[in-house]
Design a protein that fits this description.
single chain; about 290 residues; mainly alpha
């Protein structure tokens, strides 16, 4: 049950993060946004260090942990950037549904690495997830118009990068302190985003109101949501964690209504339900 509740809390904070972030991302450069997210997440991460304890019998070698850490960090660097670029060009609920295509990429990757055969249920789930994604692509705006290709493609690319990154985390979840792992990751992300901003000659200045929102988003998303999800991986299989995480769009919808006064249209729900149905079929096929 620990894995279940850790994942539920992760979905709650992640869904909340999308809505709070949407209130400011429209007027803020996504790269600047994620730079300050990583900065504040790293700063607040130090407050959790007293609760971090080394694991007694790590199963992974130091080399494996280092490879997993670097691989995960680089992928999150890309994923966060394109995720917020996508959110900038669509609604939080549509972004939440599209981001959940991560499950498809996770399962395809496990098939690729372990050379397992594709079951008929897997092919059906792929069809449902792709169909739902295309519905949201062409009917995902507030008035059932099409979502910009940039927004749609950014969210799909972010989902793919997160899927690979979570595979890296799962490989060492029982061998490292997740609090320290995330702290070091967020510090490195801050340096990477800051270096990228300097290269691209980006302005580090943001409004005081935007800064307050970024602090909230950093704590909810990069700190609490990710911490709870990684802790869930310690107690649960990756596939089960991802399936349970599918409640995230419903938390997003509630927050969207309360804060942005937005409700998903019927066709957006249809597209989202097709994606979630495909994910459920994947998981049922995994148990057979």
């Amino acid at each position: 049950m620990k894995g279940f509740w850790f994942t539920i809390f992760s979905a709650f904070f992640s869904g909340s993060m999308l809505v709070f972030g949407k209130t400011e991302i429209t007027e803020t450069d996504p790269l600047v946004f994620v730079f300050y997210m990583a900065l504040f997440a790293g700063a607040f991460g130090f407050l959790l260090l007293p609760f971090s304890h080394p694991l007694p019998n790590p199963s992974a070698s130091k080399k494996s942990i280092m490879i997993a850490f670097i691989g995960h960090t680089v992928l999150v660097y890309l994923a966060l950037w394109v995720l917020w670029l996508g959110i900038k060009h669509t609604t939080p609920v549509v972004a939440s549904f599209l981001a959940n295509t991560q499950v498809l990429f996770t399962l395809l990757l496990t098939r690729l690495f372990f050379s397992e055969k594709l079951r008929p249920s897997m092919l059906l789930s792929c069809l449902l997830i792709i169909s739902g994604s295309l519905i949201l692509r062409y009917h995902g705006s507030e008035f059932n118009g099409s979502v910009s290709f940039l927004g749609w493609a950014s969210l799909i690319a972010g989902a793919m990068a997160f899927a690979i990154g979570d595979c890296f985390v799962k490989s060492v979840a029982n061998s490292v302190s997740m609090i320290r792992f995330l702290l070091l990751r967020n510090i490195l992300l801050t340096l990477l985003y800051g270096f990228t901003m300097i290269i691209l000659n980006k302005d580090f200045t943001v409004s005081a109101e935007a800064m307050k929102t970024i602090v909230v988003v950093a704590v909810m998303g990069m700190l609490l949501a990710r911490l709870f999800f990684n802790l869930g991986l310690r107690h649960w299989q990756l596939s089960k964690s991802i399936l349970t995480f599918q409640v995230q769009p419903f938390f997003t919808a509630i927050w969207s209504y309360l804060i942005l006064h937005e409700l998903p249209t019927m066709i957006q729900w249809i597209g989202g339900i097709l994606i979630i149905s495909g994910i459920v079929i994947i998981q049922r096929g995994e148990k057979e």
